[in-house]
Amino acid sequence: MFEGRMLEMLRTETRVTRRLDRLGDQFLFSKQDFAYPRVELDRLVFDNAEYVKDGLIPLTEWLGPSPWSERMIGVDRRHLETCSPRGALGQDPPRRCSK
């Protein structure tokens, strides 16, 4: 079931939604462009964390190691680990996300 068409969908999603390093953004096929004209780090971090939490983790729990688990691991953690509304833990002073 997850070979062929589903795998091609994952590859297309990864290719067309990549916006900042490996962070994806909302892409509108009707416009053939991103939904938001600017890169907004706060939104990208939140949206990608939700994608991993609600989409890729459940698939990985069900499928085990797969292209979907590789996609989950491939979401660029540099931004997820260093950015939060209150600043990242372990940083002095904390780095905050862009506004």
Topology:
Blueprint: H1 5-17, E1 18-20, E2 23-24, E3 27-28, E4 33-34, H2 41-63, H3 67-74, H4 77-82
Antiparallel strand pairs: 1-2, 3-4
Order of helices and strands: HEEEEHHH
Which range does the strand content fall in? 5-15%
Q: In what order do the strands lie side by side in the largest sheet?
A: 1-2
Mean pLDDT, to the nearest integer, reads 82
Number of strands: 4
Could you name the ranges where pLDDT drops below 50 across 5 or more consecutive residues?
Answer: none
Helical percentage? 40-55%
Characterize the overall form.
Answer: globular
Task: Label the structural class.
Answer: mainly alpha
Number of contiguous helices? 4
Radius of gyration: 15 Å
The major beta sheet can be summarized as:
2 strands, antiparallel
Describe what this molecule looks like in 3D.
With 99 residues, this protein is mainly α. It is built from four helices and four strands; from the N terminus they run H-E-E-E-E-H-H-H. The strands form two sheets. Strands 1-2 form a two-stranded antiparallel sheet. The protein is globular. It starts with a helix and ends in a 17-residue tail after the last helix. The model has no long low-confidence stretch (mean pLDDT 82).
Quickly list its features.
99 residues, mainly alpha, two-stranded antiparallel sheet, 4 helices
Structure in a nutshell:
The protein has 99 residues and is mostly helical.
